[in-house]
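Reopening closed ticket. The problem is back. First fold of the pair:
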Amino acid sequence: MNDPDETLNPVAEPTDAAVDTDVEVDAESASVSEAENDIELDQLESDLESVDAALRALDSDEIDQAEALAAALIDEAPAED
């Protein structure tokens, strides 16, 4: 007969080697993701500075400069999929 402490459908536990590999992959994925986030943050900060400059140009009635800054932002915008 079956031992009552024994499960009918045991789930295989990962080995230490499998756990170590998962940790390495997760750490690598995290560092790649962090680098991508840093690049995106830098781009957003640059865009914010351009918008700020365009708004300051509008405030000082420098319409041509504001239009040029706005056009540069539109040209730099990545295409959305």
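Second fold of the pair, where the issue appears:
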Amino acid sequence: MSGPAVGLWLSEPCDVEDVLTDVAPWLRSFCEPVKVEAGGDLSFRVRDCAALGLRGVAPQAAGAFWLSEDECIPAEDEDYSAFSQPPAQGLVLAAGCSGAVNHMPLGHLALALARRLGALIDFDGVLGYPTPRDETVDDAHLARARALVASLPGMVAEVSYDTGSGSRWFRHVGDVEFLAAWLRHPEFHLVK
């Protein structure tokens, strides 16, 4: 079973293979092995969690991670009006297995990569909202989720998109200041 994932939105078009090639040596400094998979995707395990600012997290506790191009970004059904420009391209950073132990390393990897690449972070869902959700929206849960997100510094926006059932839902997208604050919050978790 795959674990949580986040998107990294790049503001300028680029050759994603070049980006992945550029970050591979950095990843090798604290991950092993960093394998280039078919299609240029990177897979790796974190060897030294302290390199990400995580103390007391045993590297063997976290699973494998991968980084690849998000071919769905930009998407025609998404509302990017909260941004001065829509994303030009995207990357996906994901944990290979489920479990709370993968949330913190994935969040710190996303923060470090977003800083290196000047990217926004797509949280792939509504932070603080119970998942999975059915087609009904619980207004009380949604109000609590919005209040939680609004209480943190940095920029965060709601990006709406079409669901498979023909309705609209949204996900949170934030900047590095927001993610850094979310990582310090006692309720921190990613969407999964």
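Update: turned out to be a display glitch only; the data is intact. The beta strands are 5-10, 31-36, 42-46, 64-69, 89-95, 120-122, 156-162, 168-174. The CA atoms of residues 16 and 69 lie 7 Å apart. Please close again.
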